[in-house]
Write a structure and sequence with these properties.
This protein has five helices and eleven strands. It is of the alpha/beta class. The longest helix has 18 residues. The termini are far apart. This is Methyltransferase domain-containing protein.
């Protein structure tokens, strides 16, 4: 029997493609690829790093847009954490130029970091949720790092129609191992004491209660 990595409920066999099998939780809707079919860690990190390097400019633009929106609402200096693959030096300098305190934590390389001993106003997850091998741990960690009234900003893709999973392009990347539905997000938000403010299936905005 497979247990859900999010709620520890029963995860039933769901789908098999040429390379991986997938399991779907009957309670929270979370779908994961079979851990036995995951890439070796060294290969996973190399492929993920190569892919995220291609997205550096888009990643920086996303963070810049988030900061700009916050600046429209409030003037104070924010403590912002980029939770996921880090921006390189030049792009990071541009973000710092906004005048806020900007930090980065890479959950795929770092285990113990001084970044985990601080609290943040905003935590940004840019195309990273789908790579979590232990999503419940990462969500709870972010909840602990977030100040009361703080924000979690997510860029990802939620699965809208489980019946179309086999034709969903999002599963073609073998570094993507965790897949969320709206009900999964609702479960995690409640677990982490977050309220959903906005969700269009790609951009998700959550606030700490």
């Amino acid at each position: 029997m497979h247990h859900c990595l999010v709620c520890h409920g029963h995860a039933r066999y769901f789908y098999q493609d040429k390379k991986r099998s997938y399991f779907n939780c009957t309670a929270c809707g979370f779908i994961c690829s079979d851990p036995n079919t995951h890439l070796p860690q060294s290969v996973f990190k190399q492929r993920l790093g190569n892919e995220k390097m291609k997205l550096q400019a888009k990643h920086a633009t996303f963070i810049s847009t988030v900061i700009t929106e916050f600046q429209k609402q409030q003037a104070q200096c924010l403590r912002i954490l980029n939770y996921g693959y880090p921006l390189d030096g030049d792009l990071m300098d541009k973000i710092i130029g906004f005048g806020h305190l900007f930090f980065q934590f890479n959950p795929f390389d770092e285990v113990d970091s001084k970044m985990l001993k601080q609290k943040y106003d905003v935590i940004i997850n840019y195309r990273v949720l789908e790579h979590f091998a232990n999503p419940k741990r990462d969500w709870l960690l972010q909840s602990r790092l977030l100040k009361q009234g703080g924000w979690v900003i997510v860029e990802t893709q939620l699965l809208n129609d489980p019946a179309a999973f086999n034709s969903w392009h999002f599963i073609n990347d073998a570094t993507r191992i965790s897949f969320y539905q709206a009900q999964t997000l609702n479960y995690l938000a409640e677990l982490c004491e977050l309220s959903e403010v906005f969700n269009n299936g790609t951009l998700i905005v959550l606030k700490k209660n």
